[in-house]
Amino acid sequence: MVLEQVKDLVEKGQMLPLMEEFYTIQGEGYHKGTAAYFVRIGGCDVGCHWCDVKESWDAETHPPTDIKKIVANAAKYSNTIVITGGEPLMWDMAPLTSGLKTKNLHTHIETSGAYPLTGTWDWICLSPKKNKLPTEEIYDVASELKVIVYNKHDFVFAEEQAAKVNENCILYLQPEWSVREKMIPLIVDYVMQNPKWIVSLQTHKYLNIP
Ligand SMILES: C[S@@+](CC[C@H](N)C(=O)[O-])C[C@H]1O[C@@H](n2cnc3c(N)ncnc32)[C@H](O)[C@@H]1O
Ligand SMILES: Nc1nc2[nH]cc(C(=O)O)c2c(=O)[nH]1
Ligand code: SF4
Ligand SMILES: [Mg+2]
């Protein structure tokens, strides 16, 4: 296929820059502890300095992959497919999720919400970032809000974001991994004082799994 054709198909969401795919246990948030197949799409310009997958940022380093191939492969592993990145909403998620839905799979997304919401989702994990705030539309449909706590100001940011989500949205505070020893006691205190919040840990890192 010539380069222009590939570019056009990526533009339409028929091909996506695929970084990696793996069958594992969802480590974070509401579905933690449950088996799921993860599809990590390359490309992100949000620029979190503590991001644990910086290799995902440059979409050019990840091969444009036919979504039909992604769907057929994912279906072999699990009923639940978690689309993450990078920032998956930089791309049109409609074709990929409709392909997954054709196979009756549950579609979950991990997103900063910094780009317009596309796709059909059974579960939306919104993890907002100060450097590039979510679009207004996603607050109404987020299933869970997962705020990463790197410093004390992140509690203020968490409350600002919680004020914007829908009433059914589940609220999580998750320590940034590199400062977890310092922040976990503060998160524990905060959740006891403000019990609408729930602690989320990156349990896959404790389990030594992807
Ligand atoms: C790598 S991001 C990819 C999806 C999307 N770009 C986002 O940020 O939601 C997946 C999840 O990991 C979280 N995350 C990334 N780096 C982290 C770190 N160092 N400590 C804790 N959580 C982190 C993000 O906030 C997000 O909830
Ligand atoms: N096990 C596991 N659970 C996760 N939940 C969200 C992840 C992500 O990077 O999006 C992730 C991940 O990378 N691994
Ligand atoms: S938005 Fe997600 S992928 Fe992008 S830098 Fe932040 S944590 Fe990493
Ligand atoms: Mg991760």
From TrEMBL:
<comment type="subunit">
    <text>Homodimer.</text>
</comment>
<dbReference type="InterPro" id="IPR007197">
    <property type="entry name" value="rSAM"/>
</dbReference>
<dbReference type="GO" id="GO:0051539">
    <property type="term" value="F:4 iron, 4 sulfur cluster binding"/>
</dbReference>
<dbReference type="GO" id="GO:0016840">
    <property type="term" value="F:carbon-nitrogen lyase activity"/>
</dbReference>
<comment type="pathway">
    <text>Purine metabolism; 7-cyano-7-deazaguanine biosynthesis.</text>
</comment>
<keyword id="KW-0949">S-adenosyl-L-methionine</keyword>
<keyword id="KW-0456">Lyase</keyword>
<feature type="binding site">
    <location>
        <position position="44"/>
    </location>
    <ligand>
        <name>[4Fe-4S] cluster</name>
    </ligand>
</feature>
<feature type="binding site">
    <location>
        <begin position="50"/>
        <end position="52"/>
    </location>
    <ligand>
        <name>S-adenosyl-L-methionine</name>
    </ligand>
</feature>
<feature type="binding site">
    <location>
        <begin position="25"/>
        <end position="27"/>
    </location>
    <ligand>
        <name>substrate</name>
    </ligand>
</feature>
<dbReference type="InterPro" id="IPR058240">
    <property type="entry name" value="rSAM_sf"/>
</dbReference>
<keyword id="KW-0460">Magnesium</keyword>
<keyword id="KW-0408">Iron</keyword>
<feature type="binding site">
    <location>
        <position position="84"/>
    </location>
    <ligand>
        <name>substrate</name>
    </ligand>
</feature>
<dbReference type="GO" id="GO:0008616">
    <property type="term" value="P:tRNA queuosine(34) biosynthetic process"/>
</dbReference>
<feature type="binding site">
    <location>
        <position position="40"/>
    </location>
    <ligand>
        <name>substrate</name>
    </ligand>
</feature>
<keyword id="KW-0671">Queuosine biosynthesis</keyword>
<feature type="binding site">
    <location>
        <position position="86"/>
    </location>
    <ligand>
        <name>S-adenosyl-L-methionine</name>
    </ligand>
</feature>
<dbReference type="Pfam" id="PF04055">
    <property type="entry name" value="Radical_SAM"/>
</dbReference>
<keyword id="KW-0411">Iron-sulfur</keyword>
<feature type="binding site">
    <location>
        <position position="210"/>
    </location>
    <ligand>
        <name>substrate</name>
    </ligand>
</feature>
<comment type="function">
    <text>Catalyzes the complex heterocyclic radical-mediated conversion of 6-carboxy-5,6,7,8-tetrahydropterin (CPH4) to 7-carboxy-7-deazaguanine (CDG), a step common to the biosynthetic pathways of all 7-deazapurine-containing compounds.</text>
</comment>
<dbReference type="GO" id="GO:0000287">
    <property type="term" value="F:magnesium ion binding"/>
</dbReference>
<keyword id="KW-0004">4Fe-4S</keyword>
<feature type="binding site">
    <location>
        <position position="48"/>
    </location>
    <ligand>
        <name>[4Fe-4S] cluster</name>
    </ligand>
</feature>
<feature type="binding site">
    <location>
        <position position="51"/>
    </location>
    <ligand>
        <name>[4Fe-4S] cluster</name>
    </ligand>
</feature>
<keyword id="KW-0479">Metal-binding</keyword>
<dbReference type="GO" id="GO:1904047">
    <property type="term" value="F:S-adenosyl-L-methionine binding"/>
</dbReference>
<feature type="binding site">
    <location>
        <begin position="127"/>
        <end position="129"/>
    </location>
    <ligand>
        <name>S-adenosyl-L-methionine</name>
    </ligand>
</feature>
<protein>
    <recommendedName>
        <fullName>7-carboxy-7-deazaguanine synthase</fullName>
        <ecNumber>4.3.99.3</ecNumber>
    </recommendedName>
</protein>
<comment type="similarity">
    <text>Belongs to the radical SAM superfamily. 7-carboxy-7-deazaguanine synthase family.</text>
</comment>
<dbReference type="InterPro" id="IPR024924">
    <property type="entry name" value="7-CO-7-deazaguanine_synth-like"/>
</dbReference>
<dbReference type="InterPro" id="IPR013785">
    <property type="entry name" value="Aldolase_TIM"/>
</dbReference>
<feature type="domain" description="Radical SAM core">
    <location>
        <begin position="31"/>
        <end position="210"/>
    </location>
</feature>
